[in-house]
Write a structure and sequence with these properties.
Number of strands: 4
Helix content: 25-40%
Radius of gyration: 13 Å
Structural class: alpha+beta
Order of helices and strands: EEEHEHHH
Strand order of the largest sheet: 1-2-3-4
Number of helices: 4
Distance between the termini: 31 Å
């Protein structure tokens, strides 16, 4: 596996507008966290409310860039993420907002 080396640029989080029931760790709320990783592009993760607020919770790489530059949640198959609604094609406005703010 190739080691990803990029420079961290702008980071933005946005609260999800969708209520996620699965996985159970996301039931209390989800934040989409996007970061500009120079040399790779924009990466987006889904963070449980506890992960976002305390650093202790569930963090899942949602898109391909996040899966390259991070190991957080990469053991979850993309097919499972799709069933959960956590893909780059999600309709949740929080996902789009977090990415749009990073691209400015």
């Amino acid at each position: 596996m190739r080691e990803a080396r990029g420079r961290l640029g702008r980071v933005q989080a946005a609260k999800a507008h969708t209520k996620y029931a699965v996985p159970r760790g996301l039931a209390s709320g989800v934040y989409f966290v996007s970061a500009d990783i120079r040399g790779f592009g924009v990466a987006t993760w889904a963070a449980s409310a506890s992960e976002y607020k305390t650093g202790g919770g569930l963090l899942i790489a949602v898109d391909s860039v996040a899966r390259v530059v991070s190991t957080a949640g990469t053991d979850i198959p993309r097919s499972t993420l799709s069933r959960w609604g956590l893909t780059p094609k999600t309709k949740d406005r929080g996902y789009a907002i977090s990415r749009r703010c990073v691209k400015r």
